[in-house]
């Protein structure tokens, strides 16, 4: 999905951001495995079920991304 998000034949995005509740360990591991870098903590970021939840902010830019699938790489060459 990141190849598609960053490619010229896909969404053509420059930046993808993920905001994750700190207790969601599976999502934190996924973001880190996908090469996202941690940018900081957003305190009381979203009100979920009547409670303000902190979120860890992760991001990745096109320049940081290594394309894995040839159709997306060829389109941007």
Describe this structure in words.
- The chain has 77 residues and is an alpha+beta fold.
- It has a single domain, classed as 3-Layer(aba) Sandwich (Aminopeptidase).
- It is 27% helix and 38% strand.
- The protein has helices spanning 2-6, 25-33, 70-76; strands at residues 15-20, 37-48, 51-61.
- It has a three-stranded antiparallel β-sheet with strand order 1-3-2.
- Strand 2 (37-48) and strand 3 (51-61) form a beta hairpin.
- The longest helix has 9 residues, at 25-33.
- The two termini are 19 Å apart.
CATH topology: Aminopeptidase
Low-confidence stretches: none
Reported for the largest beta sheet, the result is: 3 strands, antiparallel
Strand order of the largest sheet: 1-3-2
How many H/I helical runs?
3
Offer a quick outline of the entry.
This protein is an alpha+beta fold. 27% of the residues lie in helices and 38% in strands.
Topology:
Blueprint: H1 2-6, E1 15-20, H2 25-33, E2 37-48, E3 51-61, H3 70-76
Antiparallel strand pairs: 1-3, 2-3
What labels describe this entry?
3-stranded antiparallel sheet, Aminopeptidase, alpha+beta, 3 strands, elongated, 77 residues
